[in-house]
Amino acid sequence: METPNLNYVNQLAGGDTTFKNKLIEVIKTEFPLEKAQYLESFKAKNHKLSAENVHKLKHKISILGLEKSYKIAEIFEDNLKEGSTRDYEKFDTILETITRYLKTL
Amino acid sequence: MNCIIIDDEATARTIITQLCTQIPNITLKEEFSNAIEAIKYLNQNDIDLIFLDILMPDFTGFDFIQTLKNPPKIILTTSDSKFAIEAFEYNCIIDYLVKPITLPRLEKAVQKVTAITASSKETSVKETQDVKSDNHLYINIDRRLIKIDIPSIYLVEAKGDYIQLKTETKNYTVHSTLKKIEEKLPDDLFLKIHRSYVINIKKIVDIEDNSVLIKKDVIPVSRSNRPELMKRLNLL
């Protein structure tokens, strides 16, 4: 499993620590909400809504530099759109990795 | 260039806002987490550019575009490149950015908008000049285009979403705005004397206090427009 990083955030901030901290706070606030929404939709077997939730989470995955995970998320989103839950374990692992990483920030 | 952001994701809005601060000719006026709020804002404000997310709950970016009569330029921002083909169906969509957005890519998109805006302004000025020199105007009445001799128009009155055009021979009610017709009428002949009236100054019969008699219509002159009216008259 690849490791999340702040390369994109640092590049975006360009040394502006205030902005960097602000963005990290926004991600730390928003990610758990999006994750919870996804888990709820998935539990309710609402695959269409789950796909939309995964779509939204993809942005956070890419911001944290998880390129391979982004591709897994894309495939999982497509699977959900077709009514399949294939690869959900892989996606869960990605979410857990991000959750752990955000706690270190 | 005045712009707004429409994206239900706070992270995306934070990033685009930060990037906009680094592009000189961009002024970020407002950001919205849903398209409905943005529609209300656009009804009351002039915006040149929208950074628009596609997948939002209830109301997608494409649904939003379809509600706009005269959409400003739009740069789509999305986590998915799969909508690119659909985006080509809309003339107002200038570029398509896949998240996470970088500064060089956003700058390139804004440059495209600037170039297209400049080009369409040139065309619009030329078209207006052509129309003004032609002395005729075509109005759309019940799907018929009726030719109007511009000097025969003596009064244009705003009536909600319509304007009433009064000519020597006939009156017409057209779905348009006073602002639009003002652009089509020659400045040396026509003058806006009130927020609801544009008159042909050659057809004035007399002026009394704050009103003008034009044909048989008595039209109010607003205080702010009176000096310009007086300047345009051949006063003894």
Please tag this protein with its features.
heterodimer; A: about 100 residues; mainly alpha; about 0% strand; elongated; B: about 240 residues; alpha/beta; 5-stranded parallel sheet; 5-stranded antiparallel sheet; 7 helices; 15 strands; about 30% helix
Describe this structure in words.
Chain A has five helices and no strands. Chain A is mainly α and 105 residues long. Chain A starts with 6 loop residues before the first helix and ends with a helix. In chain B, the strands form four sheets. Chain B has a five-stranded parallel β-sheet with strand order 2-1-3-4-5. In chain B, strands 10-9-8-12-11 form a five-stranded antiparallel β-sheet. Chain B has a three-stranded antiparallel β-sheet with strand order 13-14-15, with no helix packed on it. The radius of gyration of chain B is 23 Å and the shape is elongated. Chain B starts with a strand and ends with a helix. Chains A and B meet through helix 1, helix 2 and helix 3 of A and helix 1 of B.
Average pLDDT of chain A works out at: 95
- The percent range for helix content of chain B is 25-40%
Tell me the series of helices and strands of chain A, N- to C-terminal: HHHHH
| Computed CA radius of gyration of chain B, to the nearest angstrom | 23 Å
Give me the count of strands of chain B. 15
Rg of chain A is 14 Å
How many strands, which pairing sense, and closed or not: the largest β-sheet of chain A? none
The general outline of chain A is elongated
* Percent of residues in beta strands of chain B: 25-35%
Structural category of chain A is: mainly alpha
* Distance separating the two termini of chain B: 46 Å
Supply the number of helical segments of chain A: 5
Q: Describe the sheet with the most strands of chain B.
A: 5 strands, parallel
Uncertain spans of chain B: none
Percent strand of chain A: under 5%
Structural class of chain B: alpha/beta
Kindly, what is the distance between the CA atoms of the first and last residues of chain A, rounded to a whole number of angstroms? 19 Å
